[in-house]
C-alpha cells in the first residue's frame, strides 16, 4: 500500500481533517499533505519525523513500510473511548439505514417482478387471441 494511502488511513483513524493533520505537523496549509495523499509528492524524511513526533503512538514500521499495526498501543483516554462509542453508534445507525434500504429495494423488486409477470401474461393472452383470430380468418377463406 502506498504511503499516501497509509497517511489517509491514519488521518481517518485519528478522526481529524487533513488540514488539522497538516497543522499538527507545523504546516499552515494542507497542500503538501494533499499532494502526498494523492501521490503527487513523496513525504520527506523531515515530514515523517514530524508525524512520528506529533503522534507518538503511530508505529514507525507501519508508517514507513506498511508492516505491523498502525498504532504501537491503542489510546486509552476517555476521549478515545467516547469517540469509539460514538463511532460504533454511528455504524449501527448506518447499518440500520442500510437494512431499511435493502428491505425497500426488495419490496420494489417484488412489485416490479409481479408487474412484469402480469405484462408477460397479458402478452400471452394477446398472442393467443391473435393466433386464434388468424386461425379463424384462414378457416373462413
TrEMBL record:
Residues 95-122 form a coiled coil. Keywords: Coiled coil. GO terms for molecular function: DNA binding. InterPro entries: Cro/C1-type_HTH, Lambda_DNA-bd_dom_sf. SUPFAM superfamilies: lambda repressor-like DNA-binding domains (SSF47413). Residues 7-63 form the HTH cro/C1-type domain. It comes from the Bacteria. This is XRE family transcriptional regulator. It comes from Larkinella terrae.
